[in-house]
Structure formats: C-alpha cells, structure tokens
Amino acid sequence: MTPPGISAEAFAAAIGGFRAAVGADWVFTSDEDVGLYRDAFSPAWGEAEERLVSAAVAPASSEEVQAVMRIAHKFRIPIYPISTGKNLGYGGSAPNLSGSVVLDLKRMNKVLAVDDKRHFAIVEPGVSYFDLYHHIRENNLQVWLDVPGPGWGSPIGNALDHGVGDTWGIYRNHFSAHCGMEVVLADGTLVRTGMGALPGADTWAEYPYGFGPTVDGLFAQSNFGVVTKMGFWLMPAPEAYASLTVSVPRRHDLGPLIDFTNAMEHQGLCGEPLYSSPIAAEQGHADYQALTRDGAFPSDAALDAFAAARGRPYWSVKLQFYGPREVVAAQQAAARRLALARMPQASFGGEEIIPLPLSESDLARVDLLAFGVPSLQAFALTARSPRNPEGADGHLFFSPIIPKSGKAVLTYQRVMWEEFGKAGFPRQIGPFTPPNTWMFRSFACLAVFLISRSDVEQNRKIRSFFRHLIQVAAAHGWGEYRTSPLFQDDVRAAYSFNDNALLGLHERLKDAIDPQGILAAGRYGIWPGGRKPQ
Amino acid sequence: MIAKSFAFALLVAAPAALMAKGTSDRASDDRGAALFAYHCAACHGEGPGHPGTQALDYRDKGAAPALLTRRGDIPEELVAYAIRNGVNAMPYFRKTEISDADIRAIAAFLRHPSVARPSDRNGQGAR
Predict the structure, then answer these.
(1) What is the mean pLDDT of each run of 10 residues along chain B (127 residues)?
(2) Chains A, B: CB pairs < 8 Å
(3) Which of A307-316, A524-533, B2-11, B96-105 is least confident?
(4) Measured in whole angstroms, how far is the alpha carbon of residue A119 from the centre of its chain?
(5) Same structural domain, A283 and A336
(6) Which terminus of chain B is more solvent-facing, meaning fewer CB atoms within 10 Å of its CB: N or C?
(7) Does the residue A363 lie in any domain?
(8) Are the Cβ atoms of B48 and A364 closer than 8 angstroms?
(9) B5 at the A interface (CB within 8 A)?
C-alpha cells in the first residue's frame, strides 16, 4: 500500500529519508509489521471501511520527529501520530486516512520531571501510566496520578483525546490538568506553549498560559501538530481516603440526589461520585421480567413498587473524599447532614476511612482507579468470562455527554431503551442505568458494543446502529465527547451550530498551519481543504 | 476463528520438544521475567483484577493452570503468535513495544518460570 495520491517513487524516497532520520530498524514497511498498526478492536475488521496503514516510523526524540515531518512535508506523505497506540475502543493506532504513515512515538518514553513539592510531571508521549506510576513509587515521590481504565495508555495521548479518570475533580479531566506542551508542526517547526516558550523558565508545568493567546487546545482531538512533551498537574498524596454511600428509595429521587451531589462536588467537598442503582441486581427477578415483557419502559410507579418490594433503594451515590484524616471524617459528617437536609428519605452506608498509602490487604479489595493505581482490569469487560463465554475481540464505546441532572438521565434512559429495542439490540441502557461521572462538570452515559473480528454482519449492524445513535443523541442535544476515526465525521456533523461554523474555523486553521494537509488528515473530522477524499 | 483455533491447538498440544526444559542462562531468564512483569503481568498476574488470568481460568476450567507462569509448557510459537496476533480482548503488540528478541526472552522465561517469580509490576503496589 502507498499513501493516496503519492507515487511509488516518492514514497520510496520518503521511506529512505525516514530510515536515514531514525535508523532503518525503526521504519516498518513489511505487511507483517505494518499490520500491527491496525486497530485491534476495529468494528470494520477486514472490510473496506477499515482504516489501514502504509508504513510506520518510530523516532526517539523531538529532533527526529522534526526530521520525519520535514521529509513528510517534502514528499507530501500523510502522517498519523500515536503515543502508546492503546486507544482501544476509540480507534487504537489506526489513522483516519487509509495509507497514512504512522508516526509511532512509543520510543519517546522518558519521564522528564516529577516534582512532589510543586506537584507536577513532564513526560514524553511514549510514557505509559504504568511507567509514570512506577517512576513515582520507585522514587518515593509523594504525588498521585489520575488514571484512565487501561494503564498502558499514555498520559499525553489520553489527555489529547480528552480522556478522563476517577479521583479528584480537577485531575480527572486529563487535558484540563495538563500544563504546557512541546509541539512539532507539520513543517517541522518546534513550538513550546505556555511558560515553555520562555527560554530558561522553570515554570513549564506550573503556569499554563504564558503570554498571549493560549493555543494548547488546538492540539487535542485535532491534527495541528505532534505533541512531543507535556506537563501535568498532579495531586499531592493524601493522608486518607473516605467514602459514604447515600441512597434514596424512589426513581424520581435521582434528581435531588444529583443536585445534592453536584453541590458537594462543585464546592470541592468530594472527589468522583459514583452512582449506581442497587435494584439493578434484581433485573433477573420474575416480577421485573413481567414488567418489561412487552418491551415497554416500565412506569415510574411500577419501578418504585418493584424496588420497594425487593427491599432495595432505587439509587445510590458513593461519595469519595481525600485528605487529612480529620478533614475527610468531617466531610463525611457534613455530607450526611447536608443530604438529610435536602432528602429526609435518604439512608446511608459504606462509611469508612482508609489510611494511605494503601496496605496490601486494602489494595486487594479497593477500586484501584479511585486511588490512582493503573491496571488493566477494565479489559474484563471484553475478556472471556461467565458473562461473555466466548470472549469478544474488542469493544466500541458510544460516549455522549449529557447534563448533570436527574431529568436528563431519566430521559436518556427512555430514549436509548426505545432505540436499542427498535434496532433489535439488547437493551443495555434501561431504568437502572446510572450516569458516568468522570467529567467534572457533565455526565457521560456510555453504551458498549462488543466486536468480533470474524462476524462481519454483526459488525455492520453495530456500525449502522452506532451512526443512528449519534443522530438520535444529537437530536436531544447529546454529543459524543470522543469517538473512533470511523465515526468522527458522523459526530463532527452533529456539532453543526450556525451552518457548521466551528468546523469551518477548524478547517481554516488547518489549512493555515498545515497547508499540505499531511498531518492526521481527517482526525476529528478536520480534512485538509475541507474535503474528505473519496 | 481460525486464529483462535490455532492458539488453542498450540496450548493443548505443545510439541514435546518445545516443552523440554532448555539451558537458557540466568541472565536471559531474568530479562524474560522482567519483560513478562512489564508487559504481561497486569493481565496475566495472580489474583483478582487480572482479565487474562480470569479468561484462561474460565476457558480451561482447571485443565491447565490459568497463570501462564505456572504452565511451563507454552511453546515459543504460541507466545509469539499471541503477542503478534492478539487473542480476544488482548491486542497484538507492535515491535516498538515488544521486539522479536523480547518475545524470545519472554518465551524462554515461561519455559522456566520457577527461575523467577515476577512481581506484578504493572498493576499493583501500595499507594
């Protein structure tokens, strides 16, 4: 495969240039090696829609990235950068434009700084959460990470895809927690943002704005540059963790529960709140099966009666606190008092205080994500298990942002219940579906599709339904925060205010910064010249 | 499906020659142990929270140890196949992540897993 519109001679010359720039061992052109850059979880595996790669080049430094980009610029080679390449469920290491050369930054794996007095880190893109976590531990540094589900991801790659985590609000939004970046532009120019633009400044990862317009956002979910270094704010290691679960009995108590929790969280009184529906464990009960036998969404009264009969609350939220022992104890007490003031019907449980660092026994029982400990536990979702006897070959996330209100969650449940039912898919969104709370100021509400490399027909159905869901969600004002390259044009089309004015702006910027359109063409729907190749 | 069948066939019918204990030197096994700990143990480690181990436990139902480090009979071809092709939720790994030499070292370690018991470097550790 050669990149689209590039002659074999020009491609060969570019490959030769890449070899000279990074060493022949780090340029991959064989089918066997290049195949390793396919999206391992692709819902279009083996079909024409799957996005494929022509070659890969793996530089070891910013200087080598600059050299590669200059060669690509000279020969107009489309380049698609990846960090650790583990964005599984959202596209993996595959590009938007088939035939692109992947710029594999995995070899750029240096932890450049971790400061546990000023609480920041500066890393390269090939550093994984595991790497950074172990660097912190091995050097006994008193800071915490905030990690996404899969620990093999890159803090830079995850932040640039607007990834999220599970500890304290300002750290959970990984892009918002970044501070300063180094970027190689499409023509090879090296740029540093924020305080990094001031030679000799020691405040790269402390003050994000520097002087003048802030451009960092242009390099996330985009194709304006290759980020080669990035700073992140880190949380000081807390002395204790505490939790308190607040439960309410009825379906429509969700609104007051969310309002209460929002007030707690937005004041900085708790970390990530985790919602659940305790009655969901009873979905197999004959009474619930009878309620849903005709496919209709059960009435609120029927659902409340079912929950009451089974002796379970309808909703719970687990509040999580981090800080000095006496402070988290006071936060627990305050949360209990404030909850009762708003919701006299509330009940409480799950109250505990865990001293930190975690003991080995606590480590074995807690949710690691709440403690900033990276793992791969998230892949239990897809791996072979009693719930999934044959195992799946991947998963695909549908990830719309919805308002942080009970009304929005209850409406979302009904809309998705109906759509899944009409399409003949198992209703994975239903009366007990809680919101996901990674984002500090909004909810997401995920649906997950399991992918098979061999069941082409099922994958086609999933893709078709996925695109339908994007439109249904958009009609209600819910938009995906992130998606695979396969669906980025579809999601982009939904963000259409004022005749797609935002996309128009992005395209104008793209054409100004990368006039040849060589860098990650099509990423997040931004195509050079505003034209998607046919 | 073909890929899965191939992987399964290798697991249940490892050639005797490949199962024989070799004479790799200690340094090689230590390197393999370190690589296994770094790349594999977060999924294939011991205890709850390790999807690879859980998946093998569910599939084999006691016919073989779910922990790869307790097998000792996994041929290098299967290690290479799994790493370069993936199995179910396990994706394949690029050469910038795990080189061919790394695969050989991991496979050598898995043939003599008693030489070293890698800590679960990626996925555990007190905070």
Answers:
(1) 39 35 61 96 93 94 94 95 96 98 96 62 48
(2) 131
(3) B2-11
(4) 23
(5) yes
(6) N
(7) no
(8) yes
(9) no
